[in-house]
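Exercise 7. Given the components listed, write out the predicted structure of the assembled complex. Treat all entries as one system.
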Amino acid sequence: MSHIIIRVTNVHKSFKLGRIELPALRGVNLEIEKGRYISIMGPSGSGKSTLFNMIGGLDKPTSGKVFIDEVDIAQLDAYELAWLRCRKIGYIFQTFNLIQVMTALENVTLPMIFAGMDQERAVEKGLELLKMVGLADRFRHKPFELSGGQQQRVAVARALANDPAIILADEPTGNLDLTTGAEIIDLLKHLSAERKVTVISATHDFKMLNVSDQVVWIRDGRIEKIENRDELSISVGQIDSRALQD
Amino acid sequence: MQTHEPHQTSDSAQRLLVLPLGKSIQIAFQSLRVRFLRSLITVASLVLAIAFFCFTQVGTDLADSMLQTGNDGFRQALVRAGYDLSPVTTSIGSTPKQKWLMFLSLLVCLVGIVNAQLMSVSERVREIGTMKCLGALDRFILRIFLLEAGMQGLVGSAAGALVGTAAALIIGMVRFGPQALKPLAFSQVAFSLLLSMAVGLGLSLTAVIYPAAKAARMQPVEAMRREF
Ligand SMILES: Nc1ncnc2c1ncn2[C@@H]1O[C@H](COP(=O)(O)OP(=O)(O)OP(=O)(O)O)[C@@H](O)[C@H]1O
Ligand SMILES: [Mg+2]
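Answer.
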């Protein structure tokens, strides 16, 4: 059996809006193997981002547990949690979230600086990563001088800064056009294959299906089904035919 | 240039998270430069308050040094200028009314800076959240905000102190004639100048404590959630 890098057990999450409790996750169980490319699919409001935040240690479940490398992240203190975010996980967001006041290179080196790497080595590695995402000549540019696709590439490079075991991407193609989105997907796929990084991507972009090893379908805060790559073509076919009917 | 922290290998037992001082200064400086206009407004209120503070201090220094000479002409000039001198008065300090005005102007300035810094924090919610996702500790964020306030405080209070001193000397010269500046000791003026700068810096740092603490305590998820 291969190594389970993320284990989510019976996770519930509800948000309090005044007196009303709004359940966003209603008992999610999930195991993710190391090195796979996972897509979390579901309609808007189904709880993808909420699950993403739980897995990434960005938010705490109301009940249930999340284990990363068999460590219960609820047991970590603030320092260990920050360390986990710095070293173990790379985040990619729909809105890119580059730090606006910093250049592309500074954005990529920041996590390495946090991790205690010295400036020279960080710059060297930062340039290498930017080259890998095809932005070698743009390292001095600020985010607002880059296109959406280029910004997302910088974000991918930054996510890889500390050689994380996991990359979490919440709708990484959501703000990109079709071809640029496809390029980012290819890049992520390439990385997961090349570097054995576990990629978990929340999305409603069906282009993601082709590259995923596994697709987790989520609806109303519950996992509807989990499909492996070989089972996928059937449901993709269904979606295509459904889309044609609409 | 960067200051280098001792090099660490990526040993997972050594769970290290650092933000070297040089890097924090660089980030703080960049943030100020990018939001130049906003920083300028914050600094301007500090310049005004400190200029007034320093003006009052140096004006008092000047009057006091004139009185200390024992020169009768100076004494009469001071009385004409509205100083309330009895025959036994041998030194001049700032009046309660002046103290009260200085205190009020500093207070107004403090409230203004707190407001400006809170706005700066809410403008940067996403940036703070992103940094936290990259592994920033609360104290990194706190330090960046304190450094920014420190730089603003230094620049603003230095400018204010210089303006205030210059104004006090020029007005003193106009009122009492150029010879009135002669008895004024340089060390006395320098002390007032430094005091004003220290007050300004202290003010700027005090004003940022609450906004910076608010920024530092922000959870990454709440910081990322807000849409702009
Ligand atoms: N901070 C919050 N406060 C209150 N309710 C929230 C909060 N965050 C999420 N929710 C609710 O939780 C549910 C799931 O939201 P979530 O953002 O996880 O959906 P999603 O699947 O990511 O949707 P989308 O595809 O639109 O991004 C929604 O009903 C949403 O309104
Ligand atoms: Mg979402």
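Discussion: Chain A has a mean pLDDT of 90. The beta strands of chain A are 4-17, 20-33, 37-41, 63-68, 71-72, 89-92, 166-170, 198-203, 214-219, 222-228.
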